[in-house]
């Protein structure tokens, strides 16, 4: 082979080697070079659970999953016969206490007052006779005609009739004045106690009809019609769709300028649209959460922060669970 041909072969081999190196370098750059970091979050909404203070059987469910309800709409009707029985008992106790209170305020009946007055008049008449008899016996005793024993008996009868008049006078005064102040206060207190019991039972009666406390969407219903539910058992979940927000788990080296009050640009794959969010909450998730260890190469550990943000604009159809993407 001539020297010229050998030189040509060397040039071709060098060019081929150089091309291979360039191709390998390009492939390595494309595969191992810096990549766009993606932070994926999801939409969330606040929820509240509907539950009852009283146990009972589900008699009627007036909504379905996916229905939008307004505050005050009837959701569930619960059958609780024990509560209705307690309501009857409480109302009867209130009626009895009210009757006792009215009787204490009104005092004795007119028939009782007249009866006490007649007893008093009878006692006074007896006292008058006993007094005359005593004075008559006393004169005879002074004259020596009547024995001391008879005089003492007449005196004792006179004093007994005098005490009887005082007792009859007290009975008449009590009948005329009615119940004492303390008795009236006690009767009034019993009425208030009975009213409190009725109010308590009525609050349980109201719990038998569960209504929506806020506007929202019925996201889940747990029991079926006819099933028993206990006190405080969740019956359904209502999602407050009017206040959506997104949550992200962001490693601290990805936070950059992300802070409370700042606006972040995101992409919503469900609609293939971009949407701005405003950060309103940031908190580290602690050592138990996902973190990146870098101490092996002499650096530091990177913690993860929970970031919450609300959409700045409005995007119809935005629902909880939808992905929200941040590209760094």
Describe this structure in words.
- It is a single chain.
- With 328 residues, this protein is an alpha+beta fold.
- The longest helix is centred in the middle third of the chain and has 33 residues, at 110-142.
- It starts with a helix and ends with a strand.
- Strand 11 (263-268) and strand 12 (273-284) form a beta hairpin.
- Helix 2 (81-106) runs antiparallel to helix 5 (181-207).
- It has helices at 3-32, 81-106, 110-142, 148-177, 181-207; strands at residues 38-44, 47-51, 56-61, 68-69, 74-79, 209-211, 216-221, 228-229, 234-239, 245-251, 263-268, 273-284, 304-311, 323-327.
- It contains five helices and 14 strands.
- The protein is rod-shaped, with a radius of gyration of 48 Å.
Helix content: 40-55%
The overall pLDDT, averaged over residues, is 80
| Major sheet description | 6 strands, antiparallel
* Rg calc: 48 Å
What's the count of strands?
14
Number of helices: 5
Main-sheet strand order equals 11-12-13-10-1-14
| Cα shape | rod-shaped
Indicate the structural class.
alpha+beta
């Amino acid at each position: 082979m001539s020297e010229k041909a050998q030189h040509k072969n060397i040039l071709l081999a060098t060019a081929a080697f150089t091309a291979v190196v360039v191709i390998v370098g390009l492939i390595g750059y494309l595969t191992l070079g810096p990549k766009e970091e993606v932070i994926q979050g999801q939409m969330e909404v606040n929820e509240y659970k509907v539950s009852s203070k009283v146990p009972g059987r589900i008699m009627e469910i007036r909504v379905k999953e996916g229905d939008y309800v307004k505050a005050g709409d009837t959701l569930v009707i619960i059958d609780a016969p024990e509560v209705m029985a307690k309501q009857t008992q409480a109302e009867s106790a209130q009626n009895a206490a009210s009757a006792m209170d009215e009787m204490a305020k009104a005092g004795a009946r007119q028939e009782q007052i007249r009866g006490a007055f007649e007893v008093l008049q009878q006692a006074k008449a007896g006292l008058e006779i006993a007094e005359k008899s005593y004075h008559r016996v006393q004169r005879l005793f002074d004259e020596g005609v009547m024995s001391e024993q008879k005089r003492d008996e007449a005196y004792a009868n006179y004093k007994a009739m005098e005490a009887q008049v005082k007792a009859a006078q007290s009975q008449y005064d009590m009948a005329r004045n009615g119940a004492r102040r303390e008795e009236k206060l006690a009767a009034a207190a019993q009425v208030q106690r009975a009213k409190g019991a009725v109010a308590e039972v009525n609050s349980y009666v109201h719990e038998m009809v569960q209504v929506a406390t806020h506007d929202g969407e019925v996201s889940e219903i747990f029991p079926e019609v006819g099933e028993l539910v206990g006190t405080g058992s969740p019956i359904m979940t209502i999602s407050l769709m009017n206040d959506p927000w997104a949550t992200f788990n962001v490693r601290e080296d990805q936070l950059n300028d992300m802070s409370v009050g700042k606006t972040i640009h995101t992409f919503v794959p469900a609609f293939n649209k971009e949407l701005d969010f405003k950060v309103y909450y940031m908190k580290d998730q602690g050592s138990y959460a996902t973190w990146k260890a870098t101490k092996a190469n002499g650096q530091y550990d990177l913690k993860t922060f929970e970031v919450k943000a609300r959409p700045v604009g409005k995007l119809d159809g935005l629902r909880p669970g939808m992905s929200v993407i941040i590209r760094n």
